[in-house]
Amino acid sequence: MDRAMQSLRSALVVFGLLTLITGVAYPAVVTGIVQLAFPAQAAGTLVRAGDGEVRGSRLLAQGFEDPAYFWPRPSAVSYNAAGSGGSNLGPRSAALRERTEEAVAALRASAPVPAELVTTSGSGLDPHLSPEAARFQAPRIAAARGIPAERVLALIEEHTESRQLGFLGDPRVNVLDLNLALGALR
User: Fold this and answer.
1) How far apart are the first and last CA of the chain?
2) How large is the angle between the packed helices 175-184 and 149-158, nearest 10 degrees?
3) Which of 13-22, 43-52, 60-69, 169-178 has the lowest average pLDDT?
4) Among 4, 33, 129, 139, which lies 20 to 30 A Cα-Cα from 14?
């Protein structure tokens, strides 16, 4: 019995020590290093207004319904970052087909509707659109704001992020950045 208690005590000491090292010390050191090396990213890449008020995050989509602003991709999680995820609806799903047809009908114009404006992303929180999807929305935004469509198109070009690493990834536009730029137009 004495040997069993000694083994149990040793196991508990090792368990406690490893918990402190891997559950407290290591995460604290890594968090500290990341906050020093990448402060904006560690803080969630928050976008603040001139008065310091947080307007959103560059990494998470948020819903915009006003016709005077760019709309992001639809979200299967109502833009709630606490429960990110896709809809898990397959290509033969009647619910997916119905939702997509409703979205296409709402966006119907003379040009084909970009798929990303009627389908959700895997996380439901994708903050980017392709430049084509942003340009598709330009006539609606120009009409709602009473400005020339060319001004909206120029704003899209100004905010188009080029390919990452020069050759990987596609050009994209951050919807929040674009909407903040629209809001700054007077």
Assistant:
1) 82
2) 130
3) 43-52
4) 33
Quickly count: other Cβ atoms within 10 Å of residue 114's Cβ.
18
Domain residues for the domain of 80 are 45-184
| Nearest alpha-carbon partner for 119 in 157, 155, 73, 154 | 73
Do 17 and 103 lie in one domain? The reply is no
- The token duo for 156 is 């899209």
Residue 79: how many CB atoms within 10 A of its CB?
A: 19
Separation between Cα atoms, residue 19 and residue 10, nearest integer Å: 14
Cα–Cα distance for residue pair 44/42, rounded to 1 Å: 5
pTM of the model: 0.68
* Total count of domains within the chain: 2
Q: What is the helix, strand, coil percentage profile of the chain, to 5?
A: 50, 10, 40
| Token representation of residue 48 | 């603040």
